[in-house]
Design a protein that fits this description.
Elements: H1 9-16, E1 29-31, H2 34-43, E2 46-51, E3 61-67, E4 87-93, E5 96-100, H3 103-114, E6 119-123, E7 129-130, E8 133-143, E9 149-158, E10 173-176, H4 177-181, H5 187-211, E11 217-224, E12 230-236, H6 250-262
Antiparallel strand pairs: 1-6, 2-3, 2-6, 3-4, 4-5, 7-8, 8-9, 8-11, 9-10, 11-12
Length: about 280
């Protein structure tokens, strides 16, 4: 039986929001429209516009609302009741930045980039930083050899200079979870958070399985805010495996590959021919 893949971020999110345990970890997300953009920019100083379907961070845009008389606040995601009529909007994509005086002009610029495809607008979470660059996490969850869900690995993805995405394809780099947490948590706190993220990952997989029974693996993209609270940015049903090969502990990658071979994601390595 083939492995089930779900490409729609919107469909996956709607499934997960039904779970009372998982729902609080989701930043507010809406289907993109002029109304949704205006309302989300009113509530939050930073929002992301992302394709409903897509991989490797392609097509993602960040919008920051700033006041004409001041720079954006450090905590740019905090709700605000201020009137947006006097605001400037900074649109950031890839390494480009553009400024717009009105929501209408901003919307027109976004439509030129979305090319009629379905997009989402999501609350921006200010990512923790490593060496002054933002990072997020990837938690890998797989069917193990017994057919049960198991969290098999966690990595950090650090954004390239000037980039708004952390994907390796976009120039980001892999750093171990423990190293990323050193400036923020004690070893005991880091261990505790790792266990909590693994629990969240397995809970997410089980929730997804109820609607999509043929999924075999998921990768959770997790943001950590200033209070080190986790936020689920996205759930992938066909996550990249090779990135775990960058970790110093090679046993993690070996286990991930072993499980992926068992449920059919990867082909087993060819047996070497014996010499006579």
């Amino acid at each position: 039986m083939s492995i089930q893949k779900v490409s729609s971020k919107w469909k996956k999110m709607k499934v997960l929001l039904k779970d009372k345990y998982i729902a609080p970890f989701h930043p507010e997300t809406r289907k993109y429209s002029l109304t949704a953009l205006e309302q989300m920019c009113q509530i939050y100083r930073t929002v992301y516009v992302k394709p409903e379907q897509g991989t490797h961070g392609k097509g993602i845009m960040r919008i920051e609302r700033t006041e004409r008389t001041s720079e954006a606040a450090d905590h740019a995601d905090e709700p605000s009741s201020e009137d947006v009529s006097s605001a400037l909007y900074k649109l950031h994509y890839v390494k480009k930045k553009e400024h717009y005086d009105s929501i209408a002009d901003l919307h027109k610029a976004i439509l030129k980039r979305t090319m009629g495809k379905s997009y989402l607008v999501q609350r921006g979470i200010p990512l923790l930083k490593y060496q002054k660059r933002p990072f997020d996490l990837r938690v890998m969850v797989q069917r193990n050899l017994s057919g049960n869900w198991e969290a098999t690995g966690i990595i950090g993805k650090v954004a390239a200079k000037g980039k708004i995405i952390t994907n390796i394809n976009g120039g980001g780099r892999i750093v171990s979870f423990e190293q990323l947490m050193m400036p923020y948590l004690t070893k005991a706190e880091t261990t505790k958070l790792k266990k909590e993220l693994y629990v969240l990952g397995v809970r997410t997989a089980k929730c997804m399985e109820k609607t999509y029974p043929r999924i075999k693996e998921i990768g959770l993209d997790i943001a950590l805010d200033a209070q080190v609270k986790p936020w689920i940015l996205e759930v992938n049903t066909s996550p990249g495996l090779y990135v775990f090969g960058y970790l110093p502990d090679k046993s993690i990658y070996r286990k991930i590959k072993k499980y992926a071979i068992a449920y059919g994601r990867l082909k087993p390595a060819p047996k070497s021919k014996s010499t006579k």
